[in-house]
Amino acid sequence: MLSDATRVKILWALFQGESSVNSLANLVGAAPTAVSQHLSKLRLAGLVDSRREGTFAYYSASDAHVNRLLAEALSHAEHITGAATAQSSHGYRAAGRASQRSR
Predict the structure, then answer these.
(1) Predicted local distance difference test score (pLDDT) of residue 94
(2) Which of 93, 62, 97 is nearest to 76 (CA)?
(3) Which of 52, 69, 86, 103 is the most exposed place for a label (fewest CB within 10 A)?
C-alpha cells in the first residue's frame, strides 16, 4: 500500500487531521477521482477510516500504528537510497509525534 507516492502523501496529510477527498486532492496535487481510488484501497487495507456527514465523506488515519508504519517506511527508503545515514534525524518523525500528541 505504501509503494505509491500519492498514497504516502495522502496518509501523511491525514496524520495532520481529518480531511475530505477534495481537500486531500489539493494537498497532494492529484485529481479528486485518483485520491478517491487511493482512499478506497487504503480503507480496505485498514490504514484509513472514514465517516459520513450528509453527502460528504471525511477520512482519517486509522491509528498511531499506521503513523509508525509510515515513519518506518520513509526511514527505510531514506537509508536505502542514501538520502540518510544511520546518524541522521528524520524531520517527518518529529512531525508525526506532534500529530500523535494532538490526538
Answers:
(1) 47
(2) 93
(3) 86
Residue listed under C-alpha cell 500529530: 99
Cell output for 39: 482512499
> pTM of this prediction?
0.72
Three-state SS for 91? helix
Which residues make beta-bridge pairs with 59?
19, 50
For the chain, list residues with pLDDT below 50: 94-95, 97-103
- 85 to each of 18, 55, 68, 80, 94, how far by Cα in Å? 33, 47, 19, 9, 17
Which among 68, 22, 17, 12 has a CA at the least distance from the CA of 42?
12
